[in-house]
Structure formats: C-alpha cells, structure tokens
Design a protein that fits this description.
Blueprint: H1 9-24, H2 29-36, H3 40-47, H4 55-65, H5 69-73
Helix pairs in contact: 2-3, 2-4
C-alpha cells in the first residue's frame, strides 16, 4: 500500500467534502481554520490531499462546518 496521501480514496472524499461544505457556507480557508482551531495552512493541505487527518481534527472540522463527522467521510457518488 502506498504511503502517498494523494492515492487514498477516502482522503480524496474527505478533502472534496470539506471544500464543498466550506464553500457552501461561504467561508474562507482561514475562517474555517480559525473556527476549527487549526492552522490556516492545514486546511489548504487537507483540501489538496497533502495531509492525513486525525479523528480529533475530523471532529473539529466537522463542528466548524456544521455537519456530522460521518458526512465528511461519506462518498456521495
């Protein structure tokens, strides 16, 4: 199994869902980062699938995006 985060399907789903929900709320990456309590560059790295996220940060991002954590991990295809 590759250790390249960009090759992980679930990470791609998560990244897409974070970006989609952030844009739906008309939030900037910086605003999301502030509300989730993470560094602003971290949000960009997540959306570009450069960073693997912990369960802890999934929960923090979901709360800031006003969704359940499972919604960020759900493939809506």
């Amino acid at each position: 199994m590759s250790s390249d985060p960009k090759k992980c399907r679930l990470l791609a789903v998560f990244a897409t869902n974070v970006r989609r929900q952030r844009l739906a709320l008309e939030m900037s990456q910086e605003e999301l980062a502030e509300q989730a309590g993470v560094h602003r560059t971290y949000v960009g790295m997540i959306e570009r699938r450069e960073k693997n996220v912990t369960i802890y940060n999934i929960e923090r991002l979901a709360k800031a995006l006003r969704v359940k954590p499972a919604e960020l991990l759900s493939d809506s295809r």
